[in-house]
Backbone:
């Protein structure tokens, strides 16, 4: 599914069983806007009201200037692979049917590094591989961040 615009995330059905509630930690109210945005096909991150830098993970103070003020802003969902790992064991029962699967650390064009599963099983990961964020919808309706190669976005 192609997004309507460059900021809208494609939403894909998660290919395995289980529910997102089983794999996500208990969310604090501070983290809820991130996951609410994923369900709405958006990638929203905190942006510091002083230095205007995006940050992740959610934090009470900016790691760059230590200011406490922030707003939520839609981030560009594109980036490049910063690092990756291939798992040959399902560390959660929900991921066991996907073995082997790849987890990426992606540096967004806007700066922060985010983590997510590589949704394209036929793509060989590599450092600097261009990718875009997607939202994976699980059977319970929850959404988790994942990434896909940029080959389908063109």
Residues:
């Amino acid at each position: 599914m192609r997004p309507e615009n460059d900021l809208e995330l494609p939403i894909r059905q998660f290919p395995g069983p289980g529910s997102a509630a089983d794999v996500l930690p208990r969310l604090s109210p501070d983290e809820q806007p991130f996951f609410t945005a994923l369900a709405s096909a958006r990638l929203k991150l905190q942006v510091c009201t002083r230095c205007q830098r995006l940050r992740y993970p959610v934090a009470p103070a900016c790691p760059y200037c230590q200011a406490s003020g922030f707003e939520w802003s839609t981030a560009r969902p594109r980036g490049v692979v910063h690092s990756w790992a291939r798992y040959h064991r399902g560390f959660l029962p929900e991921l066991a049917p996907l073995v082997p699967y790849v987890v990426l650390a992606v540096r967004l064009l806007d700066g922060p590094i985010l983590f997510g599963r590589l949704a394209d099983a036929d793509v060989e990961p590599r450092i600097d591989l261009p990718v875009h964020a997607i939202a994976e919808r699980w059977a319970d309706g929850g959404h988790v961040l994942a990434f896909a190669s940029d080959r389908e976005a063109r």
Observations:
- The two ends are 12 Å apart (CA to CA).
- Residues 32-39 form the longest helix (8 residues).
- The chain has two helices and nine strands.
- The first strand starts at residue 11 and ends at 13.
